[in-house]
């Protein structure tokens, strides 16, 4: 009887690990950060963040059509960051602002069909007084 209970518990644990790992693969990126005076929004076509202090990673999820363009703006008073994009299952560097940089640019996406696009903002240490904005246009 005791042995059967141990076998059931082991089977339940294996099933739980399998289910968790299956669902964990559905979200390829996650946000984790420490921030002061941090404001962010994320809709299907727009994402933005602004802060006094930010350290870590912020992930935005946008919807893009086949022939979309992502317009982006960024400004960073102090620090450095890398902004990545994943539109086809591979994370690629979009741009890397450092202290004093201001960006106002656009990136044409070469997609075969409509899909979810991830924008990942990663800082290299603490950044001060910054803002990032992303807009998908057709």
Structure description:
There is one protein chain. The protein is of the alpha+beta class and 138 residues long. It has one domain (32-137): Sandwich (Jelly Rolls). The protein contains 1 helix and 9 strands. It has one helix at 2-24; strands at 32-36, 39-42, 46-64, 69-78, 81-86, 92-95, 102-108, 115-123, 127-137. Strands 1, 2, 3, 4, 5, 6, 7, 8 and 9 form a 9-stranded antiparallel beta sheet that branches. A hairpin with a 3-residue loop joins strand 2 (39-42) and strand 3 (46-64). The radius of gyration is 20 Å and the shape is flat.
Summarize it.
The chain has 138 residues and is an alpha+beta fold.
Radius of gyration: 20 Å
**Beginning-to-end CA distance, first to last residue:** 64 Å
Helical proportion, percent range? 10-25%
Rough outline: flat
What is the H/E string?
Answer: HEEEEEEEEE
Return the average pLDDT rounded to an integer. 87
- Total domains, how many? 1
Strands, helices and their partners?
Elements (H helix, E strand, L loop, with lengths): L1 H23 L7 E5 L2 E4 L3 E19 L4 E10 L2 E6 L5 E4 L6 E7 L6 E9 L3 E11 L1
Antiparallel strand pairs: 1-3, 2-3, 3-8, 3-9, 4-7, 4-9, 5-6, 5-8
Question: What are the main properties of this structure?
Answer:
138 residues; alpha+beta; Jelly Rolls; nine-stranded antiparallel β-sheet
